[in-house]
Design goal:
The complex is a heterodimer.
Chain A: H1 21-25, E1 41-47, E2 53-59, H2 61-64, E3 69-74, E4 105-106, E5 112-118, H3 121-128, E6 132-137, H4 144-148, E7 163-171, H5 174-179, E8 183-191, E9 203-209, E10 214-219, H6 224-235, E11 242-245, H7 261-273, E12 277-280, H8 283-289, E13 296-304, E14 310-322, H9 332-339, E15 349-357, H10 371-389, H11 393-400, E16 409-410, E17 416-417, H12 423-433, H13 435-447, E18 451-460, E19 477-483, E20 489-493, H14 502-514, E21 521-524, H15 542-569, E22 574-577, E23 580-583, E24 589-591, H16 592-601, E25 614-619, E26 628-637, E27 644-654, H17 661-681, E28 711-715, H18 733-750, H19 764-773
Parallel strand pairs in A: 1-12, 10-11, 14-15, 20-21, 27-28
Antiparallel strand pairs in A: 1-5, 2-4, 2-6, 3-5, 7-15, 8-13, 9-10, 9-12, 13-14, 16-17, 18-26, 19-20, 19-25, 22-23, 23-24, 26-27
Helix pairs in contact in A: 6-7, 9-10, 10-18, 12-13, 14-15, 15-16, 17-18
Chain B: E1 2-9, H1 13-19, H2 23-29, E2 33-40, E3 43-52, E4 55-69, E5 73-82, E6 85-98, E7 101-113, H3 115-149
Antiparallel strand pairs in B: 1-7, 2-3, 3-4, 4-5, 5-6, 6-7
Helix pairs in contact in B: 2-3
The chains are: A alpha+beta, B alpha+beta.
């Protein structure tokens, strides 16, 4: 029976609840760990306890003979599998051959050395302990600045300077900017290594159907199509013989924007043993072997006039790469360089990056990927400059903002900022904070010996990544919309959500365009055999690029619906809205389901038209988008304990048009939580021997719900003209805006004691010392 | 990790020096030791069990005694590996006569790796101190017991 469901209410812009949440919060979603198959085998990976060592010998006999064990493979067995790919290219980049398992030398603690496969996961784990590996331990280096010092141990013996690349970029006339300056401020600013810690660790199930010559790989990833293309290549398998499925993915934050050795390793094992095999990363493995984020030591110099006009910025980045390049490792700090001018109009910049190998797990994209580091740097420097000149931090920002009439604005680093009204969120945040009143309050508090800080950050970011020429893998995105014969609608997107809510936002877009009920719309993603092809979800791109691809596919489909509707109504003068085609003369209507049925039944076709109702669109964006915002943080510091209490957290974000304010708020909240994590608590610490000494939640200070302040989230709206939806992206905004606002606030609270900068995390110990002894960090 | 401290053994200096190199005594005094076997001059193979926070495991290792200058000092080099990680230590022990016996002061470097380092970091320092104290307490007891039977 063909039923016509029409609706008049539009959904885009509405605060509607996420359709995916019931299964997520009731524990009924299907993650990789939930995949069960007859004859499933389990893999346990044996990992190096040393940061640097030669492998003298590996004795697998005892492990191979253990109960339930069907196979043990070492690095020598998997030597022919292609290397873990690095997608980034820079001039003269040194790329170490990244075997999927170590062969004769290990380069970091956690480096895979062997895999034990058994009929039961606990038997596999027990047998893994029986491997006898004789290591010849070598000196290691875990700190990027120490790695650059003469005589440091070489991470890769062929490159004794531990330098993977040197990169230089400049714009304008930096020499003149510094020559003309009344004042130059300098500061070393670090952005510590962080562990991304997705709630779901990584995991892979590989199933080899030998008779069909078909490898099915279930993996927890943000980029299933890239995994298929690249892992098939590593395994020497034809790409069309491989299917990659990302079932429910429990968070990624960039850590699953990658191609991991284990994905190829499980494919290799499944093809060898002819049985399905499962590997689920333990939390401890996750700390040691999933990419880390950040790892910057930055040296800034900012030249300015006495009135606060910024003339030029110099930056030297020392990027801790870890032992290898993962998919995008060397590219991440280049994003910092692109973002280094922030929202300010200076045309003179000079940046150098030194990419440094260390005996640590590789760094790569983590929420913000290069932009939080850059924003933290420039926002700290602007505060330091304001302090130097005795200016108000808000005033100096307003003075240097790119003005509204200057958009599209070409930056010193080669970008074109699409649209902006940079003063608007700052004005709004200052009004919300009652800025002049809180300044007065701070003066009073200081008289009473109390420490109150007011911190501002006005951030910009590069989102909707990105135009294909600017990305390693193609920067477009795809969508297919299919209206089934019964009128239900299926959307297939090349993005791959890991919690961002596209099942809701994409359905909102489709529901409005087609005029159907949202419950009639199914959004599918994450399966290379269902979805045409796609790039994936990262860089705040899913809605701005994937949503736009969907929008264009819907336009194509709407035209076809109208054509069939007109044919059925026998009229040339028809309108399509509210899920039905109406004849403008007679007022007769045909519902979507009836029209859909007719397109498949195909008794009669409009001229030059195919049967069916399916449209696919691959959309290439003409530019990035550049969201912005202002965060103001008011802190109270306990002088006796060094504890920082966040009295108010005000976030005013401008991400262009908003599809679903509830989801946007959720993204801001989550982003701020991760920003606060970096600002106040989290740090991945390797000791001098390359041992990760923060390898579990007891030692790595992950923020808990009770540590979160109330976040006052609001928006200004400046649409982009890069895409017809006017949306910019918001996934990383909270993280990018947060850490400088927090640090600026705490430094402000202590500034009258001579404190000018504090490196993150702002642990109570550091704060207590500064609050009680004075001096600088 | 740097380790240093001192302990006073209620023994004359020559006797203190001797018991600290007696494999039978050491085997009983080292906490968790499940066997100490001489493999060469001043070289021993050791099996021991160690617990750290939620981790416990068997270690196999080597103990070497070098730079002997009886009765005033010697160097102890320990290496152990097990399923939960590895331990490496190198320390100089100095003996001096004091009121009530011999003061043994030690100073060295210890390195811990693998799972133990990743998950037990906060406890390594305290555990090491506790084990060292236990070791000396037992050494004193052992020596007293030996003296009583002699």
């Amino acid at each position: 029976m063909a039923t016509t469901i029409t609706k008049t209410e539009t959904l885009v812009g509405k605060r509607i609840r996420r359709r995916e949440d019931p299964r997520l919060i009731t524990g009924t979603a299907t993650y990789v760990e939930d995949i069960q198959m007859p004859g499933m085998h389990y893999a346990a990976i044996v990992r190096s306890p040393h940061a640097a060592a030669n492998i003298r010998s590996i004795d697998v006999k005892a492990a191979a003979a253990a109960p339930g064990v069907v196979a043990v493979f070492t690095g020598k067995d998997t030597e022919k599998v292609g290397p873990v790919p690095c997608g980034a290219s820079l001039p003269d980049l040194r790329v170490p051959h990244h075997h999927i398992m170590a062969i004769d030398r290990v380069y970091y603690v956690g480096h895979a050395v062997a895999v034990v496969v058994a009929t039961d996961r606990y038997l596999a784990r027990d047998a893994a302990d029986l491997l006898e590996i004789d290591y010849d331990v070598l000196p290691a280096v875990a700190d990027p600045e120490k790695a650059l010092a003469p005589g440091a141990p070489a991470v890769h013996p062929q490159w004794p300077d531990n330098t993977a690349f040197n990169y230089h970029q400049e714009g304008g006339d930096i020499a003149k900017a510094f020559a003309d300056a009344d004042v130059v401020v300098k500061q070393r600013i670090t952005s510590q290594r962080l562990v991304p810690n997705a709630m779901e660790t990584r995991g892979v199930v590989a199933e080899w159907r030998g008779a069909d010559r078909q490898l099915n790989l279930y993996t927890s990833t943000q980029v299933p199509h890239l995994v298929r293309t690249l892992v098939a290549g590593m395994l020497g398998l034809e790409e069309n013989r491989m299917r990659v499925i990302a079932p429910e993915v429990g968070g990624g934050f960039g850590s699953k924007l990658n191609i991991y050795a284990e994905e190829a390793l499980m494919g290799f094992v499944a093809m060898k043993i002819g049985k399905p095999v499962k590997w689920i990363e333990s939390r401890r493995e996750n700390f040691l072997t999933t990419i880390h984020g950040r790892g910057h030591v930055d040296y800034y110099e900012v030249a300015a006039k006495k009135d606060g006009t910024i003339l030029g910025i110099k930056l030297k980045i020392i990027q801790d790469l870890g032992a290898y390049h993962q998919l995008l490792t060397p590219a991440i700090p280049t994003l910092s360089v692109l973002m280094m001018p922030g929202l300010y109009k200076t045309k003179n910049v000079s940046a150098d990056i030194v990419g440094v190998f260390t005996n640590c797990v590789p760094t790569d994209a983590y929420r913000g990927a290069g932009r939080p580091e850059a924003t933290h740097g420039i926002e700290r420097m602007v505060d330091i400059l304001a302090d130097e000149l005795g200016m108000d931090p808000a005033e100096i920002r307003l003075k240097n903002f790119v003005a509204n009439e200057e958009f599209p604005y070409p930056t010193a680093t080669g970008l074109t900022y699409d649209s902006g009204n940079y003063a608007a969120p700052l004005d709004k945040a200052m009004a919300l904070a009652d800025y002049s009143k809180i300044l007065q309050e701070q003066v009073e508090a200081r008289k009473q010996g109390k420490l109150v800080g007011i911190g501002i950050s006005t951030y910009g970011e590069i989102c909707a990544i990105g135009p294909s020429p600017a990305t390693p893998a193609g920067g477009w995105e795809s969508a297919t919309v299919k209206i089934e014969p019964s009128g239900t609608v299926t959307v297939m997107t090349g993005t791959c959500q890991t919690g961002q809510g596209e099942e809701t936002t994409f359905a909102q877009i489709a529901a409005d365009e087609l005029g159907v009920d949202i419950d009639n719309i199914l959004v599918l993603r994450g399966d290379t055999s269902i979805v045409q092809y796609g790039i994936g979800t990262f860089g705040s791109r899913a809605t701005a690029i994937g949503g736009t691809a969907l929008y264009f596919a819907l336009q194509e489909l709407k035209a076809k619906v109208k054509l069939f509707g007109a044919m059925l109504l026998e009229s040339d003068d028809v309108t399509f809205s509210g899920g039905q085609v109406t004849c403008n003369k007679s007022g007769k209507t045909k519902g979507l389901a009836e029209i859909a049925g007719a397109t498949y039944r195909a008794m009669k076709l409009p001229p030059n038209t195919e049967p069916g109702l399916v449209a696919t669109h691959f959309w290439e964006p003409p530019n990035f988008t550049f969201p912005f915002g202002a965060h103001i943080v008011i802190t109270d510091i306990d002088k006796e304990t060094g504890d920082i209490a966040i009295r108010r957290y005000i976030a005013v974000d401008d991400c262009g048009n908003i599809i679903n304010p509830l989801i946007v708020d959720g993204q801001v909240h989550g982003g701020v939580a991760q920003g606060l994590g970096q600002a106040l608590w989290e740090q991945a610490v390797y000791d001098d021997n390359g041992q990760l000494i923060t390898g579990e939640f007891m030692d790595y200070a992950m923020p808990r719900a009770h540590m979160m302040p109330w976040i006052e989230s609001s928006h200004t709206i400046t649409p982009t003209n890069v895409n017809p939806l006017g949306v910019k992206g918001v996934g990383e905004a909270g993280t990018i805006g947060c850490s400088p606002a927090v640090v600026n606030s705490v430094v402000d609270a202590l500034s009258h004691l001579g404190v000018r900068h504090i490196d993150m995390p702002l642990t109570p110990e550091k704060i207590w010392k500064l609050a009680n002894a004075g001096g600088t960090n | 990790m740097k380790i240093s401290g001192s302990y006073t053994l209620p023994l004359p200096i020559e006797r203190a020096y001797a018991v600290m190199q007696d494999p039978a005594v050491l085997g009983r005094a080292i906490p968790g030791c499940e066997g100490l076997e001489k493999t060469g001059p001043d070289e021993y193979r050791m099996k021991m069990k160690m617990a750290l926070a939620s981790l416990s495991g068997a270690f196999e290792g080597k103990v070497r005694i070098t730079d002997q200058a009886p009765p005033s000092s010697f160097r102890l080099v320990v290496e152990g590996t097990g399923r939960v990680g590895f331990v490496k230590g190198d320390g100089l022990l100095k003996l001096a006569t004091v009121d009530g016996g011999t003061e043994v002061s030690y100073e060295g470097d210890a390195q811990v790796g693998g799972t133990m380092a990743a998950v037990g970091q906060r406890l390594i320092d305290g555990t090491a101190k506790m084990m060292i104290k236990k070791f000396f307490d037992r050494l004193a007891q052992e020596a007293n017991a030996q003296d009583a039977t002699e």
